[in-house]
Specification:
Keywords: Hydrolase, Metalloprotease, Protease. The protein is α+β, with helices and mostly antiparallel strands. The chain contains twelve helices and 23 strands. The protein has two domains: 226 residues, PmbA/TldD fold, CATH 3.30.2290; 265 residues, no CATH class. Strands 1, 2, 3, 4, 5, 6 and 7 form a seven-stranded mixed sheet that branches. Strand 6 and strand 7 form a beta hairpin. Helix 1 packs parallel to helix 2.
Amino acid sequence: MVESLNLRPSKEDLRDVLQAALQQGGDFADIFIEKKMMSGIGCEDNKIERLTTGIDIGAGIRVIAGEATAYAYTNDVSREGLMHAAEVASHAAKGGGAVQSIDLREVLSPVEINVELRPDQVSIEDKVEKVLAANKHARSLDERIKQVTVGYGDIVQEVQIANSDGDYVEDERIRSRFVVHAVAADGPVIQTGYEALGGVRGFEIFREKTPEELAQNAVDRALLMLTAKPAPLGRMAVVMSGEAGGTMVHEACGHGLEADLVQKGLSVYAGKLGEEVASPLVTVIDDGTISGKYGTIRFDDEGVPGQRNVLIDKGRLTSFMYDRFTARKEGRASTGNGRRESYQHKPVPRMTNTLIAAGDEDPEKIIKDTQQGLFVKKMGGGQVNTTNGDFVFDVAEGYIIENGEIKHAVRGATLTGNGPEVLQQIDRVGNDLGYAIGTCGKEGQGVPVSDAQPTLRIASLVVGGTAGGSGTDDAEATGQAGELRRISVRELLQSGEGRIRRL
């Protein structure tokens, strides 16, 4: 735990540093101290290209005075180093009331996190062995596999957080992840497939899926896309599987519900609190308390316990995601969404595990009741404008639906629309729930997140395709269901950790 921090400051030292930070004025000050132990392994071109381990120690001190924020950081966590950083921050944020007496008291969290096999207790040789096993298996499966990239990473982060309101937190965060990316080629056609696994867990992640299983999934997806037909074009019904749509809820909806964007007028949801912004079937939740998920937190990076926040309740906008700064502006409490990449960054409102809640319908029946459309098994990357909600997303794995059955695979599909409008267009919600993992980027910072959704149907959405694609009424696109590959609905709906991505 945090006792292992080098030159670990005492509560008395932290109290003195906070008072020094407020000596020139200011309404609030806090300290974030971390020791971060990391390891990373990358395999490419059939050999280990990257093997890194390291320790980073530092502290960030923030002073808030009205609407202004001053931030200073240092990798000297001695009393002297912290006092110097506090003085720098204090001079940059003048104004506010007199310095109050600070009595630090420990804050507790209801979130339990259990790691069975700590990554810092696993040898680097064992970690390399997992990476090489995935690489070997992927390359052995098919001669059309031309490139394989495998990545492993873990982090053990110990933190101390204290603030002028008297809150004091000690926390330890452990995360592990494993990613396989395969490239397949057949003549001029090149396609990719990926699979990822990770969470607030240790080396026991490989009990869920072996490196070979992850490699198999990545290769299968790349090979499938080689034989896929061009995607159709036009407006149609879109059924998204449980593991496909995390990108949609995160990007097209989640960022617009972060309080800083709302307060700056950069969110399509600004001024709509209490209004109907989605179908009554849609409930959107950000939940940092879900066991083992990649965005799960015991505390956020401001020392606020992880929370479950209902943002949209049966279609009605009920809340936004707040850090301490944005919450103070509205005279309310933080929702536990203040997050930062490291001590070098100030916290901002960020998502944790964001999801559309499961409904009560059988996912297979949703597909059977869809006459024509697109079934999205996996989502790729995309872009969204948080100001108006417009988005464009790539489909990494998709299939034609015809007469209630999943037919052949298609490649090159994109989904184009508007986030709030799409939420209104959701007319069926399944009783399953699939998670995906990722790294969310905002203001130059990356933080670990998960997103999830059940199988759901969007009644009408614009699907873009590639040259040679056609609408779902084209017999060439949809009429040869069994000639390429028949896939069971249950197989396609099987959920799991889907991908690692930059959001």
